[in-house]
Amino acid sequence: SDGSIRLHQMTSEYPLMQWNDSTKGQPVIALQWALTRPAVFFALDASSNIYIWDLLENDLLPVAKQNIPSEKVVTMTLLGEPEKANGLLGIVLAKESGQIDIQYVKKKWALP
């Protein structure tokens, strides 16, 4: 609820990494690992900002941020086929009105 993100290992109650105020204080409402690239994850905050983290490129800050200005996004999920090497990765955004929007991610964050 405070915008912090913690990376845990299943065998420990203490986080391996913690990013405080990663969303400038906005609550994180969805977070998901990329299906096609293990070091990449996506976070959605309550202000409809999507943050892309690539831990191999930068483990201190997100590598990209995208605002969805048209309407409030209430949740997101990712789609892709991890068993295929084509690098297709999409973000499915559910908006407050009930509209669903699908956006594809740049190959550099999707290729295995």
UniProtKB/TrEMBL annotation:
Organism superkingdom: Eukaryota
InterPro entries named among the record's database cross-references: DYNC2I1 (IPR042505), WD40_repeat_dom_sf (IPR036322)
One GO biological process term is:
intraciliary transport
For this record, the Gene Ontology CC terms, alphabetical, are: cilium; cytoplasmic dynein complex
Question: Could you give a GO molecular-function term held by this entry?
Answer: dynein light chain binding
Name the SUPFAM superfamilies for this protein: WD40 repeat-like
Q: What is this protein called?
A: WDR60 protein
Naturally occurring in which organism (per UniProt): Eulacestoma nigropectus
The gene it comes from is: Wdr60
